[in-house]
Specification:
- The strands form two sheets. Strands 1-2 form a two-stranded antiparallel sheet. It has a two-stranded antiparallel ribbon with strand order 3-4.
- The termini are far apart.
- It folds into two domains: 174 residues, no CATH class; 151 residues, no CATH class.
- With 397 residues, it is mainly alpha-helical.
- It is built from eleven helices and four strands, in the order αββααααβαααααβα.
Length: 397
């Protein structure tokens, strides 16, 4: 593992220095251990789900197909008209499992973009575990039902392991803040409110001090030094904010109906039961459908705000969200391409529903392209442009 933190041979690659897009060598082992843990967690989850799904079909001797049993099919991963087996969880789980595999591989490669993806996965794992804790505390019957089903104990094991893993991931993300050169990313700075000019100039023949100079320090370094310009972050943040706003609008519309549908809910459930299912695993058992619906509304909005604020870790989280959201939207369009679009033009809701993916998919593609092609941060030019500050050529006085 010690070799993970070292760079390649040759000029500029010693000890990992000079490689753009990677974390500092001192932070590389922690990030790579975190990536290995995420990869292991995701791979074990995939193997466990596959094994349980095969057991649910009765094995190879039962005469049932591995992918289908009692009307359930793994085709639901790309066709919403089909239903997954309960043990296979939801298409949301599969999408984030694939995202975990990709983010874990990037973390093994010491890529800084993995930090944001790890933070997003950590938040998801922690929230899912806390939801299970609320369900176990709120209902004794829920614990009994988990014990009765064959995979209940394994599901709880994954949830509580995810809580520990999520806390570790957040600690790693908070620690790995340096660049490949080993220098930490300078924070954003704002110019302080200094007086327009000092009452007594330091030298009669000195050039006039800049407007930002504090009292008795007429040639201090410009306070804007260290500010970062990230136009790509702004463009991606606006696009992701629009996607989150559209999702929020649909959620508000759905919750305003008399009957709110979500997996595990009753036909006459309303908005209150939906939010209870978000926070309580005993509601909406056994799938966290309501939780994921709300998560895919809140997460884009929060990540968009972080992008607009210029937070570097938001880049990886935005890429992960944009990719999984594109998969969800493409999956939603499969029935329309199979059965035709005519049935969607009969009502306003149907028209807006089928047009929504055609709006959000380009926005998410913009997020991915802009963040992948974003150039290195550029410092804000000072008041003297490329010329040195007076503090540099007047120090001999």
């Amino acid at each position: 593992m010690a070799a993970w933190g070292q760079g390649g041979t040759g000029a500029g690659a010693g000890a990992g220095h000079g490689i753009r897009g990677r974390v500092a060598p001192r932070d590389a082992p922690a990030l790579q251990w975190a990536g290995a843990a995420v990869l292991l967690y995701a791979l074990v989850a995939v193997v466990w789900i596959g094994y349980e799904a095969q057991e649910a079909t009765g094995g190879s001797s039962s005469g049932y197909s591995y992918t289908t049993y009692s009307g359930y099919s793994f085709k639901a991963l790309y066709d919403p008209r089909e239903s997954l087996t309960l043990v296979a969880q939801t298409h949301y789980d599969w999408a984030f499992l694939v995202a975990a595999l990709v983010v874990g591989a990037l973390a093994l490669g010491r890529r800084r973009v993995a930090r944001g993806g790890l933070a997003l996965l950590a938040a998801l794992l922690i929230c899912l575990c806390l939801r299970e804790v609320v369900g176990l505390m709120a209902s004794d019957e829920y614990g009994d039902r988990l014990t009765e089903i064959g995979y209940g104990k394994a599901l709880l094991t994954f949830r509580f392991t995810g809580l520990v893993l999520g806390c570790v991931l957040w600690a790693v993300v908070a620690r790995t803040r340096g660049t490949a050169s080993g220098t930490p990313t300078p924070p954003l700075q704002t110019a302080p409110a200094y007086p327009a000019a000092p009452p007594h100039p330091a030298y009669n023949d000195a050039p006039p001090p800049p407007a930002y100079a504090p009292y008795n320090v007429p040639y201090a370094p410009p306070p804007g030094t260290g500010r970062r310009v990230r136009p790509g972050f702004v463009a991606a943040g606006v696009a992701l904010l629009l996607c989150g706003g559209i999702a929020l609008g649909w959620l508000i519309y759905i919750l305003s109906q008399d009957n709110v549908y979500f997996m595990g809910g009753a036909p006459d459930d309303g908005a209150g039961e939906f939010f209870r299912a978000v926070a309580d695993a005993s509601r909406g058992f056994p799938l966290p459908h309501a939780f994921y619906n709300l998560f895919m509304v809140v997460a884009p909005l929060l990540v968009a705000v972080l992008l607009l604020a210029g937070r570097p870790a938001a880049r990886g989280a935005a890429l992960a969200l944009a990719c999984v959201s594109t998969y969800f939207d493409v999956r939603a369009l499969v029935p329309a391409f199979d059965d035709g679009f005519d049935q969607y033009w009969d009502s306003t809701v149907g028209t807006l529903g089928i047009l929504t993916p055609f709006v959000t998919i380009p926005l998410q593609v913009v997020v991915v392209i802009v963040l992948l092609t974003a150039s290195a941060d550029r410092p804000v030019p000072g008041p003297y442009g490329a010329q040195p500050s007076p503090s540099d050529w007047n120090r001999h006085r």
